[in-house]
């Protein structure tokens, strides 16, 4: 049969964000493919050099659209390392609550995302409805729903509002009660199992070759390699949680790990709400002027565990009020670019959106 | 190796016993930086990879126009001994060429491609480092260089439109107000007809 060129995205139910996959297909088997990023390039790295450290707080959440808080935390942690700043104890715990709520929200969205390519839209609507409740909680805490700009250098912007614990507990209880329902709708649903079991493999060797991190890696190498565990930031060393992993990485086991992480995040937030101490949430920065403070010279790389893997900021300061260079390491960079080029060929056309979803490719962080 | 040795000390021993370190800095217990000569980067990355630093986390460049240098950064990570190792080296800015590390870290392919696009650093050994990736039909100097001015670029690329100061109503008779008046009159006449 003649080879034909097909585009997956930029507008497609299974394609997240604004990138497109060029596929050369023979019948319904993909022969060659590559990702075409660049439709969402907004020049953030250049823009950050032109704004002060404080102003950048409003710029960085836009790097990854669906999961903005990891950017804020990685940026703030890096700058704090350069400044030698100690964040107040309460701020660490608030940051953890925010991070885990964000992880719940993105996991729900990604899990609902498999409803698109499989035709099970009920799953997607349920997941988005539950995500909406998380956004309501975020709105109460930060004043904003999607881009929060809440975690700033030196702590968090303001304290938690009174009585928010009740709302968070209520949401966690309802999500936990619906957990089995979610499994039945998606991963234990026979019609979906046919689509995800033993397909879209990610062998161990490929993980090390590409440099995939996060759930993709953990589901293949059978080790709990999670940055929260191996080099704990915030106060992740003071809460108890498990990192799900497996030794056989097909689409189903990756989604399974994702669902198990939802339970772990629920447990982490509950522990945080018990252990969180009273006290201040932000320390002022005493170098330079009140808003245009300076950061001492240095190089730093700070990484956090996002829902898709290691998400890092590489920052250079020359001692001025603006960062000299900021580089973003998107968590989906390896699998999104090299993975699509090398390992997507061989799958079927209708599995391509599932490939993108279960590998966790987020195009805004590839473009930046 | 004794057990009392911390991971950072282990890296320090490993790197210092193999290459000539120009400068080093320890950020904290999870991160250490080394500045080495350009021709020793591949050697030390190879040694680090064999010692367990199998994950290539980041590769990029920094522009230092005053020194007339580019600084390349390689960040590698080991999951068993959690330390980020930053290897940095300065290369010539006029003719920036650095051999690709593709044989050591295959995952670096697109990082090098992006670095070429944004800084103009050439990576011989990487088969398609010159292909365009993110910027489509770019016709200026690489944009992440410090001497690239985004404002001048946008003014050249998108010339300012000229707007006249007076607002021109194109058709006098069919203005919104006139239409409303006509509608009112018609409504009144209809109402009058019913009575």
Overview of this protein structure:
The complex is a heterodimer of chains A (368) and B (195). Chain A is an alpha+beta fold. In chain A, 45% of the residues lie in helices and 12% in strands. The model of chain A has no long low-confidence stretch (mean pLDDT 86). Chain A has a single domain, classed as Cytochrome-c3 Hydrogenase, chain B (Orthogonal Bundle). Chain B has a single domain (7-194), classed as NADH:ubiquinone oxidoreductase Nqo5 subunit (Beta Polymerase, domain 2, 2-Layer Sandwich), CATH 3.30.460. Chain B contains 5 helices and 5 strands, in the order αββαβββααα. In chain B, strand 4 (69-77) and strand 5 form a beta hairpin. The mean pLDDT of chain B is 84. The chains are: A alpha+beta (368), B alpha+beta (195).
Rg of chain A, Cα atoms, Å: 21 Å
Number of domains of chain A: 1
Q: Number of folding domains of chain B?
A: 1
* Structural class determined from secondary elements of chain B: alpha+beta
Shape of chain A: globular
Which class of chain B in CATH terms?
Alpha Beta
Give the CATH topology of chain B: Beta Polymerase, domain 2
The CATH architecture designation of chain B is 2-Layer Sandwich
Overall pLDDT score of chain A: 86
Low-confidence stretches of chain A: none
End-to-end CA span of chain A:
39 Å
Enter the CATH topology name of chain A. Cytochrome-c3 Hydrogenase, chain B
């Amino acid at each position: 049969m003649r080879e034909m060129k097909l585009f997956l995205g930029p507008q497609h139910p299974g394609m997240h964000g604004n990138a497109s996959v060029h596929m050369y297909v023979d019948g319904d088997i993909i022969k060659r493919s590559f990702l075409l990023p660049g439709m969402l390039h907004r020049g953030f790295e250049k823009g950050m050099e032109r704004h002060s450290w404080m102003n950048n707080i409003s710029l960085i959440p836009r790097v990854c659209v669906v999961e903005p808080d990891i950017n804020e935390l990685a940026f703030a942690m890096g700058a704090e390392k350069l400044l030698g700043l100690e964040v107040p104890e309460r701020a660490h715990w608030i940051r953890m609550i925010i991070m885990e709520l964000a992880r719940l929200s993105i996991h729900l969205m990604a899990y609902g995302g498999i409803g698109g390519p499989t035709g099970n839209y009920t799953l997607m609507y349920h997941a988005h409805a539950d995500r909406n409740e998380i956004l309501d909680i975020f709105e109460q805490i930060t004043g904003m729903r999607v881009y929060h700009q809440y975690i700033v250098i030196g702590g968090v912007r303001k304290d938690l509002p009174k009585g928010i614990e009740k709302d968070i507990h209520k949401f966690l209880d309802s999500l936990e009660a619906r957990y089995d329902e979610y499994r039945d709708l998606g991963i234990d649903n026979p019609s979906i199992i046919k689509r995800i079991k033993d397909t879209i493999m990610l062998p161990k060797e490929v993980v090390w070759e590409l440099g995939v991190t996060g759930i993709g890696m953990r589901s293949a190498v059978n080790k709990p390699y999670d940055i929260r565990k191996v080099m704990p930031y915030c106060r992740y060393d003071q809460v108890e949680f498990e990192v799900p992993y497996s030794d056989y990485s097909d689409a189903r086991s990756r989604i399974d790990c994702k669902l198990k992480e939802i339970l772990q995040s629920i447990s982490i937030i509950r522990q945080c709400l018990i252990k969180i101490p009273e006290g201040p949430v932000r320390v002022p920065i005493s170098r330079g002027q009140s808003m245009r403070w300076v950061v001492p010279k240095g190089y730093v790389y700070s990484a956090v565990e996002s829902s898709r893997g290691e998400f890092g900021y590489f920052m250079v300061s020359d001692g001025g009020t603006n960062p000299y260079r900021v580089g973003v390491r998107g968590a989906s960079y390896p699998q999104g670019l090299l993975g699509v080029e090398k390992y997507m060929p061989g799958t079927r056309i209708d599995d391509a959106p599932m490939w993108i979803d279960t590998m966790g490719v987020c195009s805004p962080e590839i473009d930046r | 190796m004794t057990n009392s040795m911390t991971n950072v000390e282990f890296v320090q021993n490993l790197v210092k016993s193999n290459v000539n370190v120009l400068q080093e800095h320890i950020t904290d217990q999870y991160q250490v930086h080394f500045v080495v000569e350009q021709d020793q980067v591949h050697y030390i990355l190879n040694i680090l990879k064999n010692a367990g630093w199998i994950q290539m986390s980041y590769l990029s460049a920094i522009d230092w126009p005053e020194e007339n240098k580019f600084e390349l950064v390689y960040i590698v990570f080991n999951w068993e001994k959690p330390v980020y190792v930053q290897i940095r080296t300065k290369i010539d800015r006029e003719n920036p060429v650095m051999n690709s590390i593709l044989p050591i870290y295959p995952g670096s392919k697109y990082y090098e491609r992006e670095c070429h696009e944004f800084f103009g650093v050439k990576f011989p050994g990487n088969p398609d480092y010159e292909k365009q990736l993110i910027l489509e039909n770019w016709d200026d100097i690489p944009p992440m260089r410090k001497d690239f001015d985004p404002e001048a670029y946008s003014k050249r690329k998108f010339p300012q439109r000229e707007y006249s100061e007076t607002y021109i109503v194109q058709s006098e008779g069919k203005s919104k107000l006139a239409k409303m008046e006509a509608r009112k009159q018609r409504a009144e006449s209809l109402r009058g007809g019913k009575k």
